[in-house]
# Entry
Amino acid sequence: MREDFRSGGEAARKLAQGVPLRDAVEVTSPRAWLDLDAGTRCWLGRELLPTREEVEGRRGRFAALSRRNSDLGEGRLALALCHRDGRVREAALRPAMAYPDLLPLVAVRAADWAEPVRERARALLREALDMGAALALAPLILLVGRRDRGTFAAALLAEVLRGAPPDRLAPLLIDPDRAVRRFAYRLVVEERLLSPAELARAAARDGDAVVQNLCADAALAAAVPEESYDGVLEPLLTARNPRARSAGVTALRRARRPERAVEFLGDRSALVRACARYVVRQYGTDPLPLHRAWCSAPDDPALRPGAVIGLAECGERADAELLWPLLTHPAPPVRARAVAALRLLDVSDVRRLRPLLDDPAPGVVRETTTALLPSAGRLPADWLMERLAAGRARHTRVAAFRLLYACGGVVRLRAAVAVLDDPDDKLRAWAGQSVQGWFPSADVRLGDPEVGELLDRGRHLFSDYVLRQRKRLAGLGG
# Structure
């Protein structure tokens, strides 16, 4: 029995006990129906399930149940639709059509592994799926559509919804499930239900990359520069997500507005910066002198971080001389981008970068750590060990541990044991895994008593047998 379906099994038990369907199952959740389907088979004994005779013998009675008893009929039919026996599932399909709340299970059965069940469910679903039902069932149908036999219901859904007015599809366009939004936007793009400006706003607003690309491409393809390009470009250029901005920036070439692309050379996104460089170069402007001019004023508080990293993206190693002064810039993002730019130019000076490990900004310390990792062995181990103290900022402790870990050998073990009692859960867990995974490397002196002491301090992480083995490997005799 799979633990995943425990919630579905509990819902099935409630239905078997006579609990009304809406009280037992979260009917608005697509996942709840799939859990009920699987949970019924995994967690409910056969003695609690309807028999085939019960379903077939009461078919007419089920359809004629009064409102007072309808929940009870729904519950038993729901269990029958999820039965292990395909003949029971098939027999329950027709009477289930009397209960709109059971239509989700009919949609599930349309992807059933048993062909007779599947074919009958598909025929009934085609009869029942009108516009209202399609909108309500879309999330479930698309979830089931990921299964091997789930394409029928998804195709039927598209057939029913094709041609629907945009206001009817609006709930699907803002559904939390990105698969539902992708389906809905593909539909409105195919049917041309939204204007280019509306598509541009959707690309700027939606958080899913697929929707962003789909809507941005469709908006730009449908836009006529003389008539509606402004209404399309502005939402894209001011979007928070970089994919929409990059589409807008690239479109500036077609709109013959390279001067507008210059301001995106310093964008926070590498993708947008690359698109901006492409556009300005198409019109004969070299972006490198612009970046050099921006980075030549290290005291300028208006200097954009994207302009700094952009210098490295289109510059050369000699441009590092413009970047070193930026390591003391008052804005942490500029300092962080300056370190990243130096690393991108393959320019590293351990002596000049080392002080930034004590920077109060976590982003600066992260970039500095990444830049120094290849040279970790050249940093004083004792100096790094001091930065593991509990009184240091978390980002400083993490950076010191990363660098000490990269040193390997006894240095790695010493650092890991030092933070076994760190107040941060993640760092403490990482240290524990490091101690457990430590083996003496070629540079570890056999019989080193410090190794034995360190392993003893972490003995709670090993069984006695493993600890003895590890000591033997270190030449300590167990």
